[in-house]
Amino acid sequence: MEPEPTFNSPILREAWAYHMGHFLADQRYGLQSSEACDQFCFDNNFPVSDWSSYMNALENFDPNYSSDPFHWIPKGLMNDLMDDRNDNNAFPVSVPLNDQVQGYTIAQLFNALQSDITTLQAYHSRLISQTNNNPTGVSTIFSFYGY
Amino acid sequence: MDINKFFLRLFFLLMAIASINFQCKKRFGCANTVYNFEIGVKAYPDYDSINIRDTIWFEINTPDTLRDIQSNELINYSGVENLGSVISIEKLDGNNFTIKALKKFEFILINGTEVSNTKDPDLFKEYLLKDSNGYYRFKLGIIPLEVGTFRLIFGNASNVYRKSDECTKAAFSISFRSTNQHYYLNPNFQGGSFPAGGDYYFYVK
Q1: Which residue from A3, A144, B39, B90 has the least number of CB within 10 angstroms?
Q2: Does B166 reside within a domain?
């Protein structure tokens, strides 16, 4: 049986839940998936080619529209730490995020979700202390999500 | 006695379910997006290079009865509470647009309302569209104060709701129409086709 995260932040719980929901659906269905609706409804290969609807939904999440009552949930944060796509160099650009980070794994993201982590800032610090993978780039991403 | 308690609980349970359903148009909960709409923004004059202190206008003028992308039905979505866009401007630095450039422009707002966005004042400005007489309207002029190559992005609007109905939420994709977006001003552009977007490039001389 997999261990359950014990982190104590609603923001982190929501972020993890959105990420894992889409990530696992992508693992299971890939490009055979149906439409994925989150902020918007996305199809396979749209707007990012060769990406499933689920990963497109995560990648194109925009946390900056403060009039969206749910903009505070960093739905795309963990995907931006894992993927090798820089949003800033995409065509068209949906969100102006200079994403220079790649290679984080689900295990690394999960291992930083510990019981004493109560804020996203604390999660950021724990992630860097455990992995030391591109601290500057990771700070840029957390900052883009407002944390 | 126990039977009375059972019926009392059942009564309150049914009342709660009925209450939720009446409030939310017979859907359980309000979190999901029901409609997906697309609206266009036009830039003019859409020259790829302009002089310092010239003005570029960005205008939205769209009927508030729109076609839902999923169902293809026409939906009257008037009386919106929070339909708008986050606008960001960045300046080219080497091969990437990474210099936050909002402060390198003056802004003239003709239609719409600026709302507070404290996320990053050097990068983002947020506006709500005006919704009146059957149209969403927005008109913004930007005046560059510095030489360089710039990119302006209109962000999409999500979880939009109406004043009369906070449950039936909509997502609005905002992209340029009838506008040359000058993608070739981005050093990373390699040609090819891709979906229309809300990004616009221009050079200030």
Answers
A1: A3
A2: no
The residue in chain B having the minimum alpha-carbon distance to the alpha carbon of residue A63 is: B119
Cα B195 to Cα A22: distance, rounded to the nearest angstrom: 23
Residue B94 located in a structural domain: yes
Residue B132 CB partners (closer than 8 Å, separation 6+): none
Residue ranges of alpha helices (H) inside chain B are: 2-23
Q: Do A64 and B86 touch (CB under 8 A)?
A: yes
Range of the domain at B127: 3-23+40-156+176-204
Closest CB to A64 among B98, B115, B124: B124
Task: Say if B167 falls within a structural domain.
Answer: no
B118 neighbourhood in chain A, CB within 8 Å? 66
Please indicate, yes or no, if residue B8 is contained in any of the structural domains.
Answer: yes
pLDDT of residue B48: 94
Q: Name the stretches of chain A with pLDDT < 50.
A: 1
Asked if B79 and B130 count as a contact pair (C-beta separation under 8 A), the reply is no
Task: Report how far residue A79's alpha carbon sits from residue A81's, in angstroms, rounded to the nearest whole number.
Answer: 5
Side-chain-facing half-sphere of A85: CA atoms under 13 Å: 23
The residue in chain A having the minimum alpha-carbon distance to the alpha carbon of residue B95 is A89
* Residues in chain B within 8 Å Cβ distance of A98: 96, 98
pLDDT at A147: 87
Minimum distance, in Å, between the CA of residue A128 and any CA atom of chain B: 23
Tell me whether B175 touches chain A (CB under 8 Å): yes
Whole-prediction pTM value?
0.86
pLDDT value at position B47? 96
Provide the number of structural domains found in chain B. 1
How close is the nearest chain A Cα to the Cα of B5, in Å?
36
